[in-house]
């Protein structure tokens, strides 16, 4: 039994069943055995490969968008460049390589990486050791200094804890994790109920057993981003897998040794994620004061940003095998049946800040 599983069972025995949010937070962040706290899960040797690990083109095109946003802001003398959950630092390294083509951007920028894992901070430091900006590591967005900002969050919000509610004969009760008669982890319906006033529109008549998810942690960050954008100006780029309109469904999933797994089977050793509700993120950002640009799929964002042109440049003069590899990377990033449609891109800005390529989609 893993350290995390022992802790979870002991806590349930002492305090009673825990919410899905508490379970996710413990599995991912426990300092003694949490998934992100104790290992490098990224890349071909980890449990999953993110877009920056698929191809340098992803980070380069994100970097080009950030450089354009900096120019649209009027090239301020000081700006905070922020990344949430930087993984290995791969995206930021590729971003800074493109940003170097606009020297004023690099001269103005202070780099802040929001990362709580000591293991991943060390990996990010190594990756960015020879880049033109050296990072300051922060625990939360609230630690970012005042001033205009450019923020990137790729596959960050999907790992934030969610709450689940299940429709029962007595209303919507919070879904919890307890122990069965054999002492093993199991799902159940807790005593906490969702007030009818908080139930998303159109879901009141769902059948028994229906599950809906809420994401208060993600929404709180989106609202704070909105507050900062309204106050100081800037741009935020959020890339993640999820859905554009609030809908019922259980999206909590576990990935263990490269395959999908029972979410209760390997706490601490499996990655836990849930699909991001982009409608809720956008609503929270607007509440904070941000302008929300119409979201688009990752495929559309990359193609509008010049993915095919960049692929052609990279492939010029290369061998047939190298060109084929680049074509495969383009397919992986942008094809509808791969990452292109599942992943969505949401752009937030201050009131008067254009953000190509989203403005052409307004």
TL;DR of this structure?
The chain is an alpha/beta fold and 362 residues long. It has helices at residues 3-15, 20-29, 51-54, 56-72, 90-99, 103-108, 118-127, 216-232, 278-288, 298-304, 307-315, 320-334, 336-342, and strands at residues 18-19, 79-84, 109-114, 136-138, 149-154, 163-168, 171-179, 185-193, 211-214, 234-243, 253-256, 259-261, 271-273, 276-277, 291-297, 343-349. The chain has 13 helices and 16 strands.
Structural notes for this entry:
The chain is of the alpha/beta class and 362 residues long. Helix content is 38%, strand content 24%. The protein has helices at residues 3-15, 20-29, 51-54, 56-72, 90-99, 103-108, 118-127, 216-232, 278-288, 298-304, 307-315, 320-334, 336-342; strands at 18-19, 79-84, 109-114, 136-138, 149-154, 163-168, 171-179, 185-193, 211-214, 234-243, 253-256, 259-261, 271-273, 276-277, 291-297, 343-349. The longest helix has 17 residues, at 56-72.
If classified by CATH, what would the architecture of the largest domain be?
A: 3-Layer(aba) Sandwich
Q: How many β strands by DSSP?
A: 16
Largest sheet: 8 strands, mixed
Structural class of the secondary elements? alpha/beta
Helix content: 25-40%
The end-to-end span amounts to: 52 Å
Number of helices: 13
The SSE order reads HEHHHEHHEHEEEEEEHEEEEEHEHHHHE
Proportion in β-strands = 15-25%
CATH topology of the largest domain: Rossmann fold
**Regarding CATH, which class of the largest domain?**
Alpha Beta
Shape: globular
Radius of gyration: 21 Å
């Amino acid at each position: 039994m893993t350290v995390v599983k022992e802790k979870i069972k002991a806590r349930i025995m002492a305090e009673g069943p825990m919410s899905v949010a508490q379970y996710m937070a413990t599995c991912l962040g426990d300092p003694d055995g949490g998934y992100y706290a104790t290992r490098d899960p990224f890349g071909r040797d980890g449990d999953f490969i993110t877009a920056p690990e698929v191809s340098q083109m992803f980070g380069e095109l994100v970097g080009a968008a950030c450089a354009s946003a900096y120019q649209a802001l009027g090239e301020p003398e000081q700006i905070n460049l922020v990344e949430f959950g930087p993984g290995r630092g791969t995206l930021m390294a590729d971003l800074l390589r493109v940003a170097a083509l606009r020297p004023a951007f690099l001269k103005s920028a202070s780099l802040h990486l929001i990362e709580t894992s000591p293991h991943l901070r060390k990996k990010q430091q190594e990756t960015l050791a020879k880049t033109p900006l050296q990072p300051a590591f922060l625990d939360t967005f609230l630690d970012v200094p005042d001033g205009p900002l450019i923020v990137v969050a790729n596959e960050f919000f999907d790992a934030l804890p969610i709450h689940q509610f299940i429709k029962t004969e007595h209303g919507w009760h919070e879904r919890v994790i307890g122990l069965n008669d054999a002492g093993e982890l199991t799902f159940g319906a807790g005593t906490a109920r969702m007030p009818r006033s908080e139930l998303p529109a159109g879901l009141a008549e769902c059948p028994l057993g229906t599950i809906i998810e809420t994401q208060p942690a993600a929404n709180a960050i989106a609202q704070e981003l909105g507050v900062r954008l309204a106050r100081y100006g800037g741009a935020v780029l959020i890339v993640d897998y999820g859905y554009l309109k609030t809908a019922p469904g259980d999206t909590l999933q576990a990935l263990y040794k490269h395959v999908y797994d029972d979410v209760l089977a390997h706490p601490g050793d499996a990655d836990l994620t849930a699909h991001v509700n982009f409608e809720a993120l956008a609503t929270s950002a607007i509440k904070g004061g941000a302008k929300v640009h119409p979201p688009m799929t990752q495929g559309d964002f990359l193609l509008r940003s010049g993915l095919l042109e960049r692929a052609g440049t990279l492939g010029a003069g290369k061998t047939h095998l190298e060109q084929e590899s680049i074509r495969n990377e383009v397919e992986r990033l942008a094809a509808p049946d791969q990452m292109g449609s599942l992943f969505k891109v949401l752009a937030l800005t201050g009131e008067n800040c254009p953000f190509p390529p989203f403005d052409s989609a307004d």
